[in-house]
Amino acid sequence: MTKQVQIRRGSTSQHNSFTGVSGEITVDTDLNSIRVHNNSLAGGFLLAKNSDLTTANVAEVTNLYFTNSRSRLALTSGNSIGYDNTTGNITLTPSGVTASVYGNSTIVPIITVDTFGRVTGISNATITASGTITSVVGVSSGAVSNTQIASGVSTEGLSGISNITLSANSIFTSATSLSRIVNLGNAIAFCNVNTQFGSYFTANSNVNTTWGFTGTSTAAGMAQGFILELYNGGNYTQTWPNTVRWPGNVTPALSPNLYDLLVFVTDNNGISWRGSVQVGYTA
């Protein structure tokens, strides 16, 4: 014969004043729900029915339930990030910087970045130099001022150069620039003009002297020249390099006890030098 088991039951009011033994189950006839007891809590623990498990009936404590709308409302916009809490779409607010390519071989971009890492400003600036130039490669134009050219560096191709201090073995070839005076002192039996050190040389002649020209640029398509201010050259024999060509192929006579200005230029990297002279300066 089938047996039916009925557990203790009572109204909600009755349960609120009833403390069941540990593990005991009772039925709340008002709520049609089960209560589990622990021999301590009056009324025990009310178990939820499936119909009770809706977002409207679940109490929020520390564990929140999330829906699309609740998740979207939990987020806000800020720091140039736009947010639509209806659709959940996130966008970046324009920074005001124009989309473009900045900088090239002669200008550099100046970039402004805020504390959030956003680029908030950008502009172009022409490259200028201050301090010591240590390398000039592939430069076609640019302004250089108040600058020291380091040892072994060529200034070919630069324009707008001023207030330059040359270090040893620098090649100073700009046609629009100033050059420091290189004093060779008293000429000796062999005297060398190294055009890497400058383009204006001075010397005093007190012995017969053989001259040599070195340091000529090897760059294609470049002209180079220098001036030699020679004192008392007429009192001694001056032997010039065999690459020097004088007007009419006649070596000029120089002045004794006066200053002569000898100008030499080459447009073929020193294979030949054209020479000319202005003689007889008293100072």
Describe, in plain words, how this protein is organized in 3D:
This protein is mainly β and 283 residues long. Among the domains are: 9-52, Seminal Fluid Protein  PDC-109 (Domain B) (Ribbon); 179-283. It contains two helices and 20 strands. The chain is rod-shaped. 17% of the residues are buried. Residues 134-146 have low confidence and may be disordered.
Average pLDDT rating: 80
Poorly predicted regions are: 134-146
| Overall spatial form | rod-shaped
Distance between the termini: 145 Å
Order of helices and strands: EHEEEHEEEEEEEEEEEEEEEE
Largest sheet: number of strands, sense, barrel closure: 6 strands, mixed
Radius of gyration: 48 Å
Secondary structure: helix percent:
under 10%
Read across the widest sheet, the strand sequence of neighbours is: 12-14-16-19-20-18
- Continuous helix count: 2
Oligomer: single chain
**How many strands in all?**
20
Category from helices, strands and their pairing:
mainly beta
Strand content: 35-45%
Short description:
By secondary structure, this protein is mainly beta. The protein contains two helices and 20 strands.
